[in-house]
Amino acid sequence: MSENKILSDLDIARHATMLPIEDIAERAGINGDALELYGPYKAKINRAKLVFPQGKTPGKVVLVSAMSPTPAGEGKSTTTVGLADSLARAGHKVMIALREPSLGPILGMKGGATGGGYSQVLPMDDINLHFTGDFHAITSANNALMALVDNHVFQGNQLGIDPRRMTFKRVLDMNDRSLREVVIGLGGPLQGVPRQDGFDITVASEIMAVFCLATDLDDLRARLGRITFGYTYDRTPVTVSDLGVEGALTMLLKDAIKPNLVQTIAGTPALVHGGPFANIAHGCNSLIATCTAMQLADIVVTEAGFGADLGAEKYMDIKARIADVAPSAVVVVATIRALKMQGGVPKEKLSEPNIEAMAAGVENLKRHVGNVAKFGISPVVSINKFGTDTPEELEWLLAWCAAEGVEAAVADVWGRGGGGDGGDELAAKVAAALEAPSDFRHLYPLELSVEDKIQTIVQEIYGADGVEFSVPALRRLAEIERNGWSGLPVCMAKTQYSFTDDASRLGAPKGFRVHVRELIPKTGAGFIVALTGAVMTMPGLPKEPAAMRMDVDADGNPTGLF
């Protein structure tokens, strides 16, 4: 291999020397009895056998978010890993809590989702593919529920379930637009009751959300039982506990609910567990993993999906209401490339210096930074360095942050991570932010109506003038009120590329309204999903999927995972 050749993420991961997972567990303070090994470099943690340090104060949480994502890539996971490694390098006891990647985006656009360069979690190929089988278990539990529901209808329908008013779908961990709408039960009386159905992607399943918000096995069972999967002929909600199968679903998830322990290239312990999307779900790793890390480490570095308008808002308003996991510091990742694209530069010209476009695009970053402050936390901006960035562009952005009164640092964690010094300045600023006073608060009280909660989010976070509800959404608002669900928080399902519900409107638009076309009560997860614009709960594959570049070599090792 040429010395000048830039190694791919997969090449870097493959050349890294991993420690036995028992050594990583010892480094994290995890007793051996609590480990369930999945080969030499992966393990699940059995919390029932985990011995936590006596009298330890829970670790502080650093939440990594970003400006609005672009196809140029912002490197949020890379920054999360690099920051944690740099904090560990500075002497802090650190753990990482990340989401598991979904196969659909990996084979579609991402190609991999475990960080990048020298700031990765390992083994990256295993994590990006089937890992420990958690997503398969969640898919199985979801589809077992729907098989049991349809069997109940076929066997006499004692609950009086109206097949026309099913609100729960089967799922698949794949982007497959052809399955969005299907008809099942065809072929005669012995094949079931015909009805229109459809598939969501697994990460949009309410069981995924329940899995990631449950505090323990008992809470998991209770939340599964509260899932509303449809309505009777007289429009009464029907739940999993009405069907009596919450125990069976819990059984299918009993091993998956245990957090997964892996490591970074630098040997920092990482929990990778759960994986709801942030544009169609709440976008955070499992609460169990976050709480476990907080009980073991002094600093927990975690991330929330997509920009701060999506994952971070949901972390604050959904996840942090269930348990005491509010962040003490927030990092907003920005890149020179993303600023240019937000300023109107096409992807093929992002390597060309263009401070004028950055000045236009920085309004997007400014809105995200301001939004984080609305939760009572002053964010730190991490400028994720790319090889095409010029010193003048980096200096311009640092000067802009200084003028705005925002702490910022350039982080070269892709090229100088893995225990190197590329994230040291960022780590120092984050460590200082952790010691600074903060006044965390939610964006809205739960006592507000669902309509007012949505209005608050779109006006305060997106910068919209207001909301327009479709006729079906208005009907659902009345139903939510009638069924006593109005006290739940809201989970906005919106394009990740824009503050609006139109993916083509970049920057920081003004003078727009958000269109809510449907509301879906997720009574097990404990939130109301508001579907906006054209966002899909079952994505499609792009014209040239990343899968076209993937293969295995003669030894069976994956290739093309970026």
Structure write-up:
The protein is an alpha/beta fold. The chain folds into three domains: 9-132 and 256-435, P-loop containing nucleotide triphosphate hydrolases (Rossmann fold), CATH 3.40.50; 134-253, 2-Layer Sandwich (Domain 2, N(10)-formyltetrahydrofolate synthetase); 450-532, Roll (Formyltetrahydrofolate synthetase, domain 3), CATH 3.10.410.10. The chain has 19 helices and 25 strands. Strands 1, 2, 3, 4, 5, 6, 14, 15, 16, 17, 18 and 19 form a twelve-stranded mixed β-sheet that branches. Strands 20-22-23-21 form a four-stranded mixed β-sheet. Strands 7-12-13 form a three-stranded antiparallel β-sheet. Helix 6 (134-154) runs antiparallel to helix 10. The longest helix is centred in the N-terminal third of the chain and has 21 residues, at 134-154. The two termini are 17 Å apart. The mean pLDDT is 95.
Structural topology:
Elements: H1 9-15, H2 21-28, E1 35-37, E2 43-45, E3 60-66, H3 76-89, E4 94-98, H4 103-108, E5 115-116, E6 119-122, H5 124-128, H6 134-154, E7 161-166, E8 170-172, E9 182-184, E10 195-197, E11 199-201, H7 206-213, H8 217-226, E12 228-232, E13 237-239, H9 240-243, H10 246-253, E14 260-264, E15 269-272, H11 287-296, E16 299-303, H12 308-322, E17 329-334, H13 336-342, H14 355-373, E18 380-384, H15 391-403, E19 407-411, H16 413-416, H17 424-435, H18 450-460, E20 466-469, H19 471-482, E21 490-493, E22 513-522, E23 527-532, E24 551-552, E25 558-559
Helix pairs in contact: 3-17, 6-7, 6-10, 8-10, 12-14, 13-14
